[in-house]
């Protein structure tokens, strides 16, 4: 079978199947494989001999590589004439602290001096974020008049500038997984427009999958979140995240977590303000 589920880079998968042979005296060899999306492309295999008139479980373990990420999982078996198979299972364990890392999640990769700022569309900007217009900007205490919002992680934050601010991540959607995008929002001054919007997008940042919106608090920070459950059509597609803010609405400390198989993969980078780190992921898929 070529499953709808896709490989997670660094996750260790175990294919289990019970084998037996109907009669003694017959050829009893079995082979088990993980494959690519083409069943003839073997990623790893093992083989052995089935017990006569009995059952024995065999297991094959494979750790997915970066090249496997987002590709469908293939499983395959081969047996001599009277070798039987039953009760096939696939389980996996993701590596510890393997949450989704958002590059430049705290807007500090482009280093500024105190009082400095830079627009995201400036040709000299070296951070990971993109903008659809020239008005979103990163600052380091540019407004030094006692009304400044201090950054939550690092020294810098980004202002919406009535612009879309986005990234298309290298990580891909897992069908059925529920993703939570969180970001801290704040408004520099009272009397200014205070709207913010969050989005999950497809690989084209204009392809909005889901959105939410709200109002930023004046002179303070508040965390906003958006949840999205990936559909089968999202499988293997890169995850897009996007924000929009009115001119003086600030964003900081962006995190992305997901739940799959009832287990939460915690946010990664920047270090969340509560000090949380990633946790191991374990899940099981089975066919009988």
Automatic annotation (TrEMBL):
A Pfam match: HpiC1-like
Protein name (database record): Uncharacterized protein
UniProt xrefs under InterPro entries: HpiC1
């Amino acid at each position: 079978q070529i499953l709808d589920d896709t490989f997670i880079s660094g996750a260790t998968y175990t294919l289990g199947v019970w084998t037996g042979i109907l009669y003694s005296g017959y050829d009893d060899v079995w082979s088990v494989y993980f494959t690519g999306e083409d069943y003839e492309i073997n990623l790893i295999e093992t083989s052995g001999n089935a017990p006569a008139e009995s059952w024995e479980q065999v297991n094959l373990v494979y750790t997915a590589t970066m090249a496997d990420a987002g590709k469908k999982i293939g499983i395959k078996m081969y047996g001599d004439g009277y070798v039987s198979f039953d009760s096939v299972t696939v389980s996996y364990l993701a590596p510890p602290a393997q949450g989704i890392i958002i590059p430049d999640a705290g807007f500090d990769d482009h280093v500024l001096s105190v009082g400095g700022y830079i627009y995201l569309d400036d040709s000299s900007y070296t951070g990971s974020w993109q903008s659809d217009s020239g008005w979103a900007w990163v600052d380091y205490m540019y407004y030094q008049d006692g009304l400044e919002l201090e950054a939550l992680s690092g020294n810098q934050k980004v202002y919406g500038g009535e612009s879309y601010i986005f990234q298309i991540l290298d990580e891909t959607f897992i069908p059925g997984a529920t993703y939570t995008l969180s970001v801290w929002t704040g408004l520099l001054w009272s009397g200014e427009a205070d709207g913010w919007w969050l989005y999950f997008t497809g690989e084209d940042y204009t392809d909005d999958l889901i959105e939410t919106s709200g109002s930023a608090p004046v002179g303070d920070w508040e965390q906003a979140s958006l949840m999205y459950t990936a559909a089968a059509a999202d499988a293997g597609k890169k995850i897009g995240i996007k924000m929009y803010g009115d001119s003086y609405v600030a964003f900081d400390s962006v995190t992305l977590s997901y739940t799959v198989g009832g287990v939460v993969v915690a946010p990664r980078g920047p270090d969340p303000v509560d000090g949380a780190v990633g946790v191991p992921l374990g899940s099981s898929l089975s066919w009988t």
